[in-house]
């Protein structure tokens, strides 16, 4: 017997649930890529992406996933042999650093760990020791989707500034843009990147990079650039060149609709929604963890992200069994523990097109699974989430 008929719900951290409006926006013929309509679509999207990053700098759209946008960001500002300082807080900054190494950069990892955020004072100390300024770029993620860590990007920016070091500050916002505050210019970020398929509720396949004046200046002398990623190849008024070829028309229709939905809701409201749903998820996990099997991966409460919660399982309990039950019996797909947490955790995504019933449904299903599989857990997780939202969401 199952109770899974109905719409399967994706509670994985990307691709996320797409709004019906976004799906429908793609259900139309392509348009002439040389038309005025196409030009306007490009211009409004580039302007809106810069606004999402909160920068007066330039934005670029690539037909690529997040890995592509990583490469775009690196290739424009680095030269072979340049040193990149990677700030570890899970898997994704390390992945970005691996890309840099394969592209010919020298990579140093500022050791962190999977259970905590980057410590800004450690960044400052490391940069102060680099008296020769051999480090050319510092890379970090706002949210690490594997560990569930949320880094304080503003504080790291201040630490870099305090060190007096000229390295470019580069930030990955794939799992956070549109879900929580991000202030590229105010926080002193030179290059930011993101992708379409997480908080931005659009199909996978678009990568975004924004660059400030300093980054654009560095680009002039950098030698890793290749034609597809190059910012300078995308200059000028010709729309065709802005995509280095044919525009991904349907993905752009989808993105336009998704950003319109975000604007309708109001960005601040979207941030607040993520914060409420993130905390509701944490209330449930906190209750469950009293059974001594489940727990938060991120030790410090203030470092847990509002877009994904990574839940560890110990004492020989296999998260794969729980995930399988949720999917096969109840139609909810949870995220798998990845990297260092492979086989030891599952993840609940709460990013993008998510509301109270989606989150509470997911938490309810996890609770059903915990009961059915007789996994020890504290009672009242779902109730705690419901109570929290009842207190916080005003009449
Ligand atoms: C998903 C993700 C990526 C990689 O994006 P892909 O589209 O899968 O290439 C990079 N960084 C973060 C923080 C992510 O969550």
What proportion strand? 15-25%
Tell me the name of the CATH homologous superfamily of the largest domain: Type I PLP-dependent aspartate aminotransferase-like (Major domain)
Structural class based on helices, strands and sheet pairing: alpha/beta
Fraction of helical residues: 40-55%
In N-to-C order, the SSE pattern is EHHEHEHEHEHEEEHHHHEEHEEHH
Q: What is the number of beta strands?
A: 12
Count of individual helical segments: 13
Terminal-residue CA separation: 39 Å
Biggest sheet features: 7 strands, mixed
Arrangement of strands in the largest sheet: 2-8-7-6-5-3-4
**Cα radius of gyration in angstroms:** 21 Å
What is the CATH third-level topology name of the largest domain? Aspartate Aminotransferase, domain 2
Ligands present: pyridoxal-5'-phosphate
Q: Unreliable stretches, pLDDT < 50, 5 or more residues? A: none
Please tell me what the overall shape is. Answer: globular
CATH architecture of the largest domain: 3-Layer(aba) Sandwich
The CATH class name of the largest domain reads Alpha Beta
